[in-house]
Design a protein that fits this description.
M1 Pyruvate Kinase, Domain 3, 147 residues, 12% helix, mainly beta, 37% strand, 3-stranded antiparallel beta sheet, 11 strands, single chain, 8-stranded mixed beta sheet
């Protein structure tokens, strides 16, 4: 079963996110209290697999942790980059996200790129729009529910 390892947010853009016990995800907006939340974007919530973070750790960057790549939700056991755009995933009991983008262009001021010279988020991170809101916490399940 795929699950959520961590939920994270930050009040400013361009920095790592902080792991928190729970996040509130608002429909057509994103994570409450997170700098990237915005109803005008298709990238309301970001997701990255712990397996992707482990790839970076295996290169000698063992200090990296969930939230360091500015993702809101860190998952385990779901192949995020393989999900086609348009796929819907359920996080926790209520939250439904529609995958809107796979990867992204990494900006020059990316904290991880500056620190270690590489960033996995542009290749393996995914972004989604919030179809149905609710609360999400570490330990919750994450499942594909359709396209």
């Amino acid at each position: 079963m795929a699950k959520i390892i961590a939920v994270c947010k930050s009040e400013k853009k361009g920095i790592s996110k902080i792991s928190v016990p729970e996040i509130t995800v608002k429909e057509n907006y994103g994570v409450e209290g997170d700098a990237h939340a915005d109803c005008a974007t298709h990238r309301q919530v970001s997701l990255l697999a712990i397996e992707s973070i482990e790839k970076m750790r295996s290169k000698g960057f063992d200090f990296l942790k969930p939230g360091d790549f500015a993702e809101n939700i860190t998952t385990e056991g779901i192949d995020l980059p393989a999900l086609p755009v348009g796929t819907k995933v359920k996080a926790g009991k209520d939250v439904i996200l529609e995958i809107t983008q796979i990867g992204k262009e990494c900006h020059a001021s990316c904290a991880i790129r500056q620190q270690v010279g590489d960033c996995v988020m542009p290749r393996e991170g995914v972004f989604g729009k919030v179809i149905h809101g609710g609360k999400v916490k570490a330990g919750d399940s994450i499942t594909v529910v359709g396209k």
